[in-house]
C-alpha cells in the first residue's frame, strides 16, 4: 500500500515540474502529457525503475502510446489562420476607412494584416495581395517612408497589380523618387507612366490632361542633378572584427580559447584590450523568433519592419525584405509553415527548445544522413575545437560545433528525460506531417531508424539549448524620450557556439548587443594580456544578489560561480557606495589629498560631460570619453562602486543605441 502512495507522489511530482518549469496550462502539450502519465502510469513507473535515460530507448518506448501521435492537434484545421481572400479584402476595406480618416497608424496595421491574409498563388501571386501592397504604399508615402513605399509599389507590380491601374502606382513611384532626389529614375518612372496610359481606364480628356501634366513634370526635371547616392553612406556601418582569430574566426585575435582539464574551455586576452574594443562577432547558426514577436518582427533576421512582407505559405510569419523571405523559403520555412499553427499553441515555456527544431528544419534530411557518423553518440566531445589538429578552424556554422556543446545529459533527472522525449516526439510528428523524412518516414506510429536518429539529435539539441541559448534583444522606447530610458526586451533566442566558450562571471568582461540575430561583444572594461574574457549567462551582481544568482547557476548550468563579485559577495547596485565620501578608506587607492582631489575632479568633470552629450543624443562623443572616466575611477577606487555600475550601464546603452536592434514606438 505504501508503495502505491509513493508512486502517486511521483505522479504529482510530474505535475509540479510541469507547472514550475516546462509548460503552461493553456497549452495542449501539458494536457497531453498529463493524460499520458495517468493513462500509462504503470508503464511509466516500470520505465522509471529501469532508470534508462538513453534517448532512443525513451523515444521508442513513448512513441507507442497513442498520446504521442498528437493526431487531434496535428489534424485539426485552423481556418482562422489560413490565407483567405475575403478576409484580406475586408481588412483592406477597413484600412481604406482608416486612411480616409487620416488614421495612418491604423491603416498601416490593417493593410499589413491584409497582406498577411492575401492568398499567394504563383504566378501573379494574387489580386488581394497586389491591392494591399498598393494601398499600403500610399500610407508609407504619408509617413515619408520612401524606401518602404517604393518596395511596396514594386511588390504590388510583382503580385500582378491590374494593368489598367499601373499609371497610378507609376506616378506615385515617380513622386517618391523626386522626394528622394533621384531625378533620373523619377523621369524614367514618369515616362513609364505615360507609356502605361493607353491601358488605363480613363476618359480621353482626362488621359490627355494627365499626359500633359506628366510631360511637364519630366521637363521640369531636365536640369536637376541626382543627390541620392549619399543615402547609403549615411547608414551607420556594422562594426567589424579588424583582425579575427584564425582558429576561432568569430573572435578577435585579441582573444584565444584555452583548455584546462578541470576548467574546460575558456577565453583569455592575448594582449591588452581597450574598453569598447570589439572582441566577438557571432552569426548564430540557429535562431528562433519568439511566438509573441512572430507576425510582427522578421522571422529571419528578427528586425522590425513598418511594412513587412508576408509568408507565402502561412499567416503567422512575416519578413522584412524579399532577401529574408527568400532565405527562409529556401530553408526552414517551407517545412515549418506546414505545422506553424500547431507549433504556436503548445504552451511551451522553454522557448529555447524551438532551436532544436529549427536546427533540423533549416537543412534537408540528406544533410543529416551525410554527417551521421560525425554526430553519433560516441563522437560527442566537449573539448571540440581545442583538441583538434593545428590547422583546424572552429566555425560557428559547422554542425559539429553545435553538436559538441555541452548538454549535461547525465545530470537531468528521469522526469525531465521523459518530458524531453515526449516533446521531441511532438516535433517528430510535426516533421512527419511536413513529409520531412521522405522515404524514411515510418508507416506506423513507431519510429524508423532515421526518425530515431533525428529524434536523438533533437533531444540532444534541446539539452544543448537549455544550457547554451542566448536571448536576442531589441531596445524599445516610447515617444520622443531619450534612448537612455529605453528597455531591452527579448524578441527571440539563438545558439552561438563560439560565444558560449566564454565562461560566466557576474561581473563580466564583455557587453553584448544584437544586430539582427547576430551578437556583438565589446570589452566593458580595459583588460590586460592573460585576463580571462568572461560573459554573463544570467544576472549580473549589480542587479541580483548572490543568494538569488547562485541557485540557477548551479541547477541550470551545473557550476558554482567563483567570480570576484561572488567570492567577495558584492552588494547590488543600490547598496553600493554612491559618492566619494562614502568610500571606505581601504578602498581608496590614493592617499595623498591633492592627487585625490585632482582625480575626483576629473571623474566629476568627465562624468558631467558624458551626461550632457547623452542628453543631446551625441552618443559617439559620449562613448569617446568613457575610457578617460573609467581609468580615473580605476586609479582612485577599488571596485565595486556605483560609479562603475553606472558607467558600464550607460556605456552599454550608448553602444546599443548606436549599433543594436531598436524600435521607437509612437505614443
Ligand atoms: Zn529580415
Ligand atoms: Zn559570480
Could you characterize the architecture of this molecule?
By secondary structure, the chain is an alpha+beta fold. Among the domains are: 80-234, Tetratricopeptide repeat domain (Serine Threonine Protein Phosphatase 5, Tetratricopeptide repeat, Alpha Horseshoe), CATH 1.25.40; 573-665, no CATH class. The chain is 47% helix and 9% strand. The protein contains 27 helices and 11 strands. The protein has helices spanning 2-22, 28-39, 41-50, 55-63, 71-74, 85-100, 104-117, 127-142, 146-158, 166-179, 183-196, 204-220, 230-234, 322-329, 332-336, 340-343, 354-361, 365-370, 399-403, 414-433, 449-468, 546-557, 564-567, 593-615, 619-624, 626-636, 642-659, and strands at residues 255-260, 264-269, 278-282, 286-289, 309-310, 318-319, 470-478, 487-495, 510-515, 518-523, 662-665. It has a 4-stranded mixed beta sheet with strand order 4-8-7-11, with helices on one face. Strands 3-10-9 form a 3-stranded antiparallel beta sheet, with helices on one face. Strands 1-2 form a two-stranded antiparallel sheet. A hairpin with an 8-residue loop joins strand 7 (470-478) and strand 8 (487-495). Helix 24 (593-615) runs antiparallel to helix 26. The chain is globular, with a radius of gyration of 29 Å. The N and C termini lie far apart (64 Å). Residues 1-24 have low confidence and may be disordered. The structure holds zinc ion (ZN) (2 copies). One zinc ion (ZN) binds next to helix 23.
CATH architecture of one domain: Alpha Horseshoe
What is the C-level CATH assignment of one domain? Mainly Alpha
Estimate the mean pLDDT confidence.
89
In terms of DSSP E residues, the strand content is 5-15%
Helical percentage: 40-55%
Give me the oligomer status: single chain
Question: How is the largest sheet built, in terms of strand order?
Answer: 4-8-7-11
Number of strands: 11
Which molecules are bound in this entry? Answer: zinc ion
How many alpha or pi helices? 27
Which stretches are low in confidence, meaning pLDDT under 50 for 5 or more residues running? 1-24
Tell me the major beta sheet: 4 strands, mixed
Amino acid at each position: 500500500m505504501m508503495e502505491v502512495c509513493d508512486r502517486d507522489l511521483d505522479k504529482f511530482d510530474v505535475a509540479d515540474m510541469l507547472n514550475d518549469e516546462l509548460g503552461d496550462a493553456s497549452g495542449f502539450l501539458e494536457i497531453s502529457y498529463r493524460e499520458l502519465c495517468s493513462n500509462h502510469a504503470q508503464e511509466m513507473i516500470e520505465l522509471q525503475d529501469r532508470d534508462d535515460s538513453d534517448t532512443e530507448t525513451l523515444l521508442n518506448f513513448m512513441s507507442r502510446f497513442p498520446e504521442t501521435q498528437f493526431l487531434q492537434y496535428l489534424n485539426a484545421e485552423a481556418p482562422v489562420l489560413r490565407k483567405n481572400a475575403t478576409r484580406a479584402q475586408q481588412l483592406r476595406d477597413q484600412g481604406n476607412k482608416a486612411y480616409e480618416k487620416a488614421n495612418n497608424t491604423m491603416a498601416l496595421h490593417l493593410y499589413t494584416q491584409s497582406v498577411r491574409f492575401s492568398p499567394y498563388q504563383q504566378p501573379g501571386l494574387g489580386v488581394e495581395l497586389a491591392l494591399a501592397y498598393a494601398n499600403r504604399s500610399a500610407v508609407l508615402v504619408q509617413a515619408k517612408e520612401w524606401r518602404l513605399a517604393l518596395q511596396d509599389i514594386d511588390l504590388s507590380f510583382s503580385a500582378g497589380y491590374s494593368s489598367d491601374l499601373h499609371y497610378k502606382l507609376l506616378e506615385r513611384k515617380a513622386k517618391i523618387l523626386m522626394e528622394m532626389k533621384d531625378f533620373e529614375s523619377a523621369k524614367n518612372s514618369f515616362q513609364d507612366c505615360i507609356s502605361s496610359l493607353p491601358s488605363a481606364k480613363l476618359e480621353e480628356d482626362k488621359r490627355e490632361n494627365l499626359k500633359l501634366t506628366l510631360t511637364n513634370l519630366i521637363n521640369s526635371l531636365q536640369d536637376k542633378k541626382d543627390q541620392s547616392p549619399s543615402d547609403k553612406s549615411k547608414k551607420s556601418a556594422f562594426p567589424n572584427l579588424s583582425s579575427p582569430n584564425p582558429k576561432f574566426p568569430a573572435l578577435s585575435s585579441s582573444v584565444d580559447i584555452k583548455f584546462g582539464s578541470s576548467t574546460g574551455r575558456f577565453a583569455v586576452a592575448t594582449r591588452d584590450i581597450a574598453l569598447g574594443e570589439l572582441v566577438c562577432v557571432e552569426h548564430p547558426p540557429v535562431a528562433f523568433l519568439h511566438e509573441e514577436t512572430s507576425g510582427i518582427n522578421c522571422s529571419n533576421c528578427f528586425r522590425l519592419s513598418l511594412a513587412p512582407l508576408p509568408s507565402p505559405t502561412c499567416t503567422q510569419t512575416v519578413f522584412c525584405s524579399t532577401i529574408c523571405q527568400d532565405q527562409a523559403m529556401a530553408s526552414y520555412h517551407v517545412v515549418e509553415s506546414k505545422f506553424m499553427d500547431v507549433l504556436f499553441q503548445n504552451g511551451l515555456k522553454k522557448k529555447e527548445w524551438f532551436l532544436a527544431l529549427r536546427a533540423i528544419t533549416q537543412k534537408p534530411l540528406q544533410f543529416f544522413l551525410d554527417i551521421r557518423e560525425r554526430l553519433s553518440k560516441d563522437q560527442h566531445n566537449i573539448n571540440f575545437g581545442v583538441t583538434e589538429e593545428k590547422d583546424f578552424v572552429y566555425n560557428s556554422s559547422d554542425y559539429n560545433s553545435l553538436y559538441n556543446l555541452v548538454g549535461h545529459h547525465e545530470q537531468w533527472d528521469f522526469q525531465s528525460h521523459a518530458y524531453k522525449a515526449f516533446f521531441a516526439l511532438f516535433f517528430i510528428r510535426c516533421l512527419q506531417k511536413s513529409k520531412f523524412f521522405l522515404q524514411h518516414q515510418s508507416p506506423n506510429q513507431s519510429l524508423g531508424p532515421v526518425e530515431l536518429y533525428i529524434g536523438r539529435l533533437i533531444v540532444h539539441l534541446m539539452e544543448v539549448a537549455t544550457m547554451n541559448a542566448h536571448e536576442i534583444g531589441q531596445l524599445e522606447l516610447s515617444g520622443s524620450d531619450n534612448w537612455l530610458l529605453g528597455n531591452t526586451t527579448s524578441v527571440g533566442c539563438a545558439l552561438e557556439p563560439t560565444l558560449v566558450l566564454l565562461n560566466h562571471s557576474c561581473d563580466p568582461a564583455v557587453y553584448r548587443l544584437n544586430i539582427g540575430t547576430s551578437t556583438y561583444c565589446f570589452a566593458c572594461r580595459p583588460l590586460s594580456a592573460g585576463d580571462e574574457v568572461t560573459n554573463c549567462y544570467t544576472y549580473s551582481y549589480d542587479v541580483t544578489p548572490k543568494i538569488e544568482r547562485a541557485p540557477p547557476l548551479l541547477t541550470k548550468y551545473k557550476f558554482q560561480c567563483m567570480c570576484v563579485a561572488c567570492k567577495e559577495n558584492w552588494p547590488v547596485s543600490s547598496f553600493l557606495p554612491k559618492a566619494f565620501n562614502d568610500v571606505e578608506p581601504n578602498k581608496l587607492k590614493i592617499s595623498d589629498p591633492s592627487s585625490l582631489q585632482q582625480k575626483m575632479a576629473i571623474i566629476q568633470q568627465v562624468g558631467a560631460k558624458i551626461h550632457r552629450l547623452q542628453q543631446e543624443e551625441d552618443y559617439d562623443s559620449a562613448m569617446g570619453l568613457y575610457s578617460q572616466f573609467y581609468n580615473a575611477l580605476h586609479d582612485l577606487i577599488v571596485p565595486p562602486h556605483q560609479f562603475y555600475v553606472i558607467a558600464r550601464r550607460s556605456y552599454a546603452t550608448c553602444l546599443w543605441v548606436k549599433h543594436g536592434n531598436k524600435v521607437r514606438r509612437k505614443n
